[in-house]
Design goal:
The structure holds two protein chains of two kinds. Chain A is of the alpha/beta class. In chain A, 33% of the residues lie in helices and 25% in strands. Chain B contains 28 helices and 13 strands. Classes of the chains: A alpha/beta, B alpha/beta.
């Protein structure tokens, strides 16, 4: 009895301790977030109210390294370790808006990174499946998303190139790393009328943010704007990498 | 001894220069490799400036510097500096593309520049001392230096495949050390003290020489990674090596480029592949030239594996020529897709033209098809065969803009005309390229096809051209007969989710259906150009378009160059206000390097004038002008021939080597002959040189087009012979000027510096002149420079 009580106590306290180690969502951050949404996102033409609300609600500063917290709401991407970055807030909003999510979609994200984009997607979509190749980032994002309470996100450590066949088909797919071609497995996992957004082009130069739409048997591709994303890492192409999935109990 | 030292140092320094060009081509990009010429010449110029400054402090430097001990010490410094500079360059985290973002990169660049200039400085020092202190033998000094350089230009051709770039740099840096072990007569026995000092000095020198040999041996044997040349991280090979289970299976070094073969289960290349293709691609492996321009080999084990090719954009052309009896595939700058396309089309006979010997051999072994190892233009000039399909595949480098300086003869009006003349009556020409936005290459290719069709007398030109695109590539189709069946192309585009860009009677709604831009930019621009051609206003179109998209000719063959300097601001805006996208342009690099060179040249030329005291003799303005003009003139001639001969040999490095060897050897002969000439002949020599350059300007193009169809030996022979008159005469003005126009060693040292500085600036300016006005203009600039030298001499004579 005593032992089980202790176990339960530790289980409850851990996330609390984890969050308390980071700066909380103080009025200072809420103000910065509102300013970010007003000046960086709304003024650039993003008008989807659900996205604007999501970006006002999700504490971005929790997703950046402690030493960069003061820059969390600035108008640029930030490094998050492992050679990866958290995208500029506007690009997060732009990519999300272009997926035209209504609220009952199943979304696949390739490249969890910090987990910030997954959190925004989780606020506007029904189910989010996200894959991260870098183990450390996967573990960090997994803990953080759980601690904040995003129960509609299922996260996996593994290869995003081949998608998530067991959970397919998806209404929307988002690639958050640069690649010079559209992975055919992802096209296969897209529903009819499904949308896939990705930074398409030379991974070591600049790319075009492109939206692929499936229309019965046909695909159309629309280029949105020029972007600069970190490359999809080589290991993302390995089909044999072991994969860990978190929250198997996801409905 | 100083003549032998000048010969050996010139030989080693030029080999070092050629190898640095190769190394820059691998570690950076081709357009940066020309920086090497400026580094070398600055080293030479700096030696002249150094001697001038030294002259103000030590008047007896000449007597000291011509002694054997001093020469040996400089040779040792040369070898050490060459090896050290190379190793430091190889380890330096210099990233050219991070220059605008990281200030520390400027420091790395400066370190690289200064260290690499050191070996050339020491070479220049020996040559400059010889010129300054042995004025009666300037012709011989010139001859030794030029003959050494000519040998140095040839050496890498033979030795690169044996040693590779890194080891060859070390090996050739050691060559001048022979001097250290050169036997010298000991002083007479009665001077025992002198003999003892002599022996001690000899021991120190020889021990140092041996020490350098041993360290070099250790580096090669035990520290191979120090001299391993690593390609730029932005190049395709570096990107591929990030894939798991990926490795380089073979590497071959050569003067025409380093070829790496890469095997990986994750190479998936099919440029222009339809999004409708969702099956697995056949397994592949690639070869890369200098770490880029991947050439893909598909493992096609059974015909079904060729099926993917029918889902690629260039296959549209094959549908217009069903059951082809023969197909010619022209491969250039990466590719490999055209081979499965031709196989999927079930061609009875496939001929492949591949200019790189190593890749040609690999294609022959892999596909068991006929491969001609020639430049495509040479192949066509020598062949009277007609083909049903000619497919030109050239995807280019992995960074747009880096090919701005690339001189290519496959996409000029003359080249297109040659392709069309080798097509059967119902033949099809297919050109497959990368798609750029804002539209640039596609407009240029369309205009080139249009003008070549018009040049062969076709009136309704627009009826003979079609263009399709996906999101990243486009395919241009040209036919001798009008394209009658538009339905085939429209259906292909519809079924494969491609977009049409140009087709007679094409509606705007069909041009932006599947690969959607904000507007059908490519369709709109090409139709605007077609209308401009119809109204006879094409020139106005090319003038007003923000990019240079005018069709290229053999005299200005730069298909990857689009920059218009006057439209730079507009271009910056339409490419998303990104500084780095402009910085990737080779042409911007020329401008940056030119400004840098101008500042350093001014410093090297002004510094001695300030330091020279009032009593010392200063070179007159006319003298300075003369040596500046002669330096620039020589470099213009050299670069003119290098650029012209790329057409003859199909490869810039081969052309570079042939011209350097030919020009330097014949100039060396000129220098030797100059020993017998009196001062009055200087103006005659200059007049003769200007006349020869005028003849070259008028007649070389004609000759080149005639020799292109000859055998390789005849081409080499005639090309070499054509260099002799200009090279020989260009070898006269410098040694004659040194001997007759200048009075003191310090004046001669200054002239050496002026000559070097002018050569640097001319070498950079020549690249921009060729891009803007065409290659032939370079020789006009050369003639103008010698005319200026002529005027300067006249001034001296009368004044």
């Amino acid at each position: 009895m005593k032992r089980s009580f202790l176990t339960v106590l530790i289980f409850i306290l851990c996330p609390v301790l984890f969050i308390s180690a980071r700066p909380g969502d103080t009025p200072k951050y809420r103000k910065a977030r509102k300013k970010m949404v007003d000046y960086q996102i709304r003024m650039r033409g993003i008008s989807n109210q659900k996205i604007l609300s999501a970006m006002t609600a999700v504490p971005r500063h929790l997703f950046v390294p402690a030493e960069l917290v003061n820059q969390a709401y600035d108008d640029h991407p930030l490094p998050i370790g492992q050679g990866q970055t958290i995208s500029q807030p506007y690009i997060v909003a732009l990519m999300t808006e272009n997926l035209q999510i209504k609220g009952d979609e199943r979304v696949l994200e390739v490249g969890t990174g910090s987990g910030y984009q997954s959190a925004i997607l989780a606020k506007v979509a029904k189910e989010v499946y996200t894959i991260e190749i870098k183990e450390k980032l996967f573990e960090k994002a997994d803990k953080l998303l759980q601690s904040i309470g995003f129960n509609n996100v299922q996260i996996r450590h593994g290869d995003g190139y081949f998608g998530w066949a067991e959970a397919a088909p998806f209404d929307c797919i988002m690639l958050t790393a640069a690649i010079d071609h559209i992975p055919p497995p992802l096209l296969k996992q897209l529903k009819d009328r499904g949308r896939l957004i990705l930074p398409l082009g030379n991974p070591f130069s600049y790319q075009n943010l492109s939206l692929v739409t499936k229309n019965k048997e046909d695909y159309s591709l629309r280029q949105i704007t020029g972007v600069l994303f970190v490359p999809m890492t080589g290991h993302a192409l390995s089909p044999n990498l072991s994969s860990k999935t978190s929250r198997k109990d996801f409905p | 001894m100083i003549f032998i030292a000048a010969f050996l140092l010139s030989l080693s320094a030029l080999t070092f220069e050629v190898l640095l060009t190769r190394i820059f081509s691998i570690t950076q990009w081709n357009h940066l490799s020309f920086m090497v010429i400026s580094i070398a010449l600055f080293g030479f110029a700096a030696s002249g400036t150094f001697l001038n400054i030294l002259n103000t402090r030590q008047k007896d430097w000449g007597a000291r510097f011509t002694t054997a001990d001093w020469i040996k010490a400089v040779v040792i410094l040369y070898s050490v500096s060459a090896i050290a500079a190379f190793i430091v360059l190889n380890q330096l985290p210099l990233d050219y593309f991070r220059l605008p973002l990281e200030p520390v990169q400027t420091l790395y660049l400066l370190i690289a520049y200064l260290l690499l200039a050191l070996p050339f400085f020491f070479t220049g020092l020996i040559v400059a001392v010889a010129y300054a202190y042995i004025p009666e033998k300037t012709g011989l000094v010139y001859c030794a230096s030029m003959a050494g350089s000519a040998c140095g230009a040839i050496l890498p051709i033979a030795l690169l495949p044996l040693f590779g770039e890194g080891r060859l740099v070390i090996f050739t840096s050691l060559i001048p050390l022979i001097i250290v072990f050169w036997p010298e007569p000991e002083p007479a026995a009665k001077h025992i003290a002198t003999a003892s000092i002599f022996r001690k000095k000899r021991f120190v020198m020889q021990a140092s020489g041996l020490g350098i040999f041993m360290i070099a041996g250790l580096i090669i044997l035990a520290a191979g990674s120090l001299i391993q040349i690593k390609p730029s991280p932005y190049k395709a090979v570096s990107q591929m090596l990030q894939f798991p289970d990926t490795r380089i299976t073979a590497t071959t070094a050569g003067i025409r480029g380093r070829i790496d073969s890469v095997k990986s289960p994750y190479i998936r290349s099919a440029p222009g592949l339809s999004l409708k293709y969702t099956n697995t691609l056949p397994s592949q492996w690639v070869t890369l030239k200098d770490g880029d321009e991947p050439f893909v080999f598909y493992n096609l084990l059974h015909p079904a594996q060729e099926r993917f090719a029918s889902f690629t954009l260039p296959y549209a052309g094959y549908l217009l020529a069903p059951d082809p009896e023969n197909i010619l595939l022209i491969q250039h700058g990466g590719g490999g897709l055209s081979i499965p396309c031709a196989m999927a089309a079930d061609a009875a006979e496939i001929t492949i033209v591949q200019e790189h010997p190593q890749i040609a051999r690999l294609i022959r072994d892999h596909y068991r098809v006929s491969v001609a190892n020639q430049h495509p233009r040479t192949f066509l000039a020598r062949s009277d065969k007609h083909f049903r399909i000619i497919h030109v595949e050239s995807w280019g480098t992995s960074l747009p803009g880096s090919a701005a300086l690339a001189q290519e003869y496959l996409f000029t009006i003359e080249a297109f005309t040659q392709y069309l003349s080798h097509l059967k009556e119902d033949g099809i020409l297919i050109i497959a390229r990368k798609l750029l936005l804002p539209p640039a290459d596609s407009i240029r290719m369309w205009a080139t096809a249009y003008e070549s069709l018009r040049s062969i007398g076709i009136e309704k030109t627009g009826h003979h051209i079609a263009m399709l695109r996906n999101w990243s590539t486009f395919t241009l189709i040209v036919s001798v007969q009008p394209l009658s069946d538009n339905k085939v192309l429209k259906e292909f585009a519809r079924n494969r989710n491609f977009d049409l860009v140009y087709l007679q009677g094409l509606a705007s709604s069909e041009a932006n259906r599947f690969n959607i831009f904000e507007a059908p930019f490519h369709f709109l621009e090409i139709n605007r150009l077609a209308e401009a051609y119809r109204l006879g206003a094409a020139k106005d179109y090319f003038k007003t378009y923000p990019l240079d998209v005018a069709p290229q000719t053999d005299s200005r063959p730069f298909p990857g160059r689009f920059l218009k300097w006057l439209q730079l601001k507009a271009l910056y805006k339409i490419t998303g206000s990104r500084f780095y996208s402009l910085f990737m342009s080779g042409e911007i690099v020329i401008a940056v390097v030119f400004v840098e060179a101008l500042v350093v040249a001014a410093l090297l030329l002004v510094l001695p004038l300030i330091t020279i005291g009032k009593k010392s003799s200063k070179p007159s303005f006319a003298n300075i002008l003369y040596f500046l003009a002669v330096g620039a003139g020589f470099m213009f001639i050299e670069l003119f021939f290098i650029k012209k001969y790329i057409f003859v040999f199909g490869d810039p490095v081969v052309s570079f080597t042939v011209v350097l060897a030919g020009i330097l050897a014949s100039s060396g002969l000129g220098g030797y002959w100059s020993q017998r000439i009196d001062p009055g002949s200087l103006r005659v020599a200059l007049t003769a040189l200007i006349a020869v350059l005028a003849l070259v300007f008028l007649g070389l193009d004609l000759l080149i087009h005639r020799i292109i169809g000859l055998s390789i030996i005849m081409r080499y022979l005639i090309a070499m012979l054509l260099l002799v008159p200009a090279g020989f005469l260009a070898g006269l003005p410098f040694p004659l000027g040194m001997r007759y126009l200048l009075k003191s060693p310090s004046e001669r040292a200054y002239a050496w510096a002026a000559n070097g500085c002018a050569s640097v600036l001319a070498s950079i300016a020549a690249a921009q002149i060729a891009l803007t006005f065409g290659i032939s203009t370079i020789v006009v600039c050369g003639a103008a420079a010698y005319l200026l030298a002529f005027v300067s001499v006249k001034k001296i004579a009368t004044g």
